[in-house]
Amino acid sequence: MSLLPVEDALHRLLSAARPTQRTELVRLHEADGRVLAEDVAAKLTQPPFDNSAMDGYAVRHADIATLGSILSVAGMSSAGHAFQGTAGPGEAVRIFTGAPLPAFADTVLLQEDAEVLEDGRIRTTFLTPKGRHIRPRGQDFSEGEIVLRAGDVLDAGRLTVAAAMNHAAVTVYTRPRIAVLATGDELVSPGTPPGASQIIASNTYGVAALARAAGAEVIDLGIVGDDKDAILNAVRHALSLGIDALVTLGGASVGDFDLVQPVLGEAGMDLDFWRIAMRPGKPLMVGRLGDVHVVGLPGNPVSSLVCSHLFLVPVVRRLARLPAENRERPAIAAVPLKENDHRQDYVRARIARDPAGDLLVTPLDKQDSSMMKAFAASEALLVRAPHAPAAPAGAPCTVLLLREPSA
């Protein structure tokens, strides 16, 4: 099987992804970032009554038509405590922001536009137009009005309006369930003293973090050694959990101990493609076990993370019904760039902004796919197309942002 270009691989992966159809009712406190499965209509009218937009005095406009008009103050209306009395001509009611507007009033006179006299009366110091500083009933939304639509991603503003419409819970699509399985005799969990030929299993944590940030519920299946029966049992267990995707870490290449691909084939996987024209991350594997997507990530930590950014994150967002995100940005090479071969390169790099606000990118010196410290220090991946020629400092280029530059 020849190497597949990155764009073709991503297109094939996303074309096969079917967004989740399952829904659940969740309370608003748990709904941030979730996708609405149903329209949300207001259960009440907001505001429920005419109210004041400012602190001041509720008046009849006819009583303040002349500059220097003098009015008596008949009472007060504050938020949660409406004025209960009556006010005749020449009388005002002290009112505060959000307070119900008394029935007689048609205008709010700002407190700074009224001089309080010694006897408690007020005198106008500004000619306020009729109807000013009043929020009419239903100005925001009316009972029965659909304000939020199915497919909306719930954020701070949408959660706020959902609560204001008197909804304590909303129906959303369930998060796609992603199972992560690490393989290899050499792996032990963090916190465990490794043997002479062992290393700490680190990939799971970064991959799981990216999947969660993309909208997934992640199930950690732990570590399985290089044993066909153990791997097959772990895969069957994963499929019993109602997952949407299975992500394997390592073991998908063609070495004597790379057992994941043959075991998945025995389990019934339909292999879509394997081996991508990219660096790092060539041995990426993609297939399906029935309705379950399979993404076999390389074992090298950096390769695993790069492939997760490029392939796992987009497919999880598609499954979760979240909009695609594009983190590619134009940049300027801060140093000369070498020519590239037939594979698309993703070069770990630092970025900064020049005085004009443009991104300046500097590749890190060491690019080995096992070196995690360099990845943690990178703010971006410099994207070098296949057969890209050498480029001088100052040349335009493209980066994939991992995080915003620190300076």
Give your account of this protein's structure.
By secondary structure, the protein is an alpha/beta fold. Helices cover 18% and strands 29% of the residues. The protein is built from 7 helices and 26 strands. The strands form 7 sheets. The protein has a 6-stranded mixed sheet with strand order 7-4-6-5-9-8, with no helix packed on it. A 6-stranded mixed sheet has the order 16-13-17-21-20-18, sandwiched between helices. Strand 20 and strand 21 form a beta hairpin. The radius of gyration is 31 Å and the shape is elongated.
Whole-Å distance between the termini? 44 Å
Low-confidence stretches: none
Q: Given the structure, what is the number of helices?
A: 7
State the helicity in percent bands.
Answer: 10-25%
Which structural category fits the helices and strands? alpha/beta
Global morphology: elongated
The tally of beta strands, per DSSP, is 26
List the helices and strands and how they pair.
Elements: H1 6-15, E1 23-27, E2 40-41, E3 51-52, E4 56-59, E5 70-77, E6 91-95, E7 107-110, E8 114-116, E9 122-124, E10 134-135, E11 146-148, H2 156-164, E12 169-173, E13 177-183, E14 187-188, E15 199-200, H3 203-213, E16 217-224, H4 228-239, E17 245-249, H5 260-267, E18 270-274, E19 278-279, E20 285-289, E21 292-297, H6 301-319, E22 328-333, E23 344-353, E24 359-363, H7 372-377, E25 380-384, E26 396-401
Write a short abstract of this structure.
The protein has helices at residues 6-15, 156-164, 203-213, 228-239, 260-267, 301-319, 372-377, and strands at 23-27, 40-41, 51-52, 56-59, 70-77, 91-95, 107-110, 114-116, 122-124, 134-135, 146-148, 169-173, 177-183, 187-188, 199-200, 217-224, 245-249, 270-274, 278-279, 285-289, 292-297, 328-333, 344-353, 359-363, 380-384, 396-401. It is of the alpha/beta class and 407 residues long.
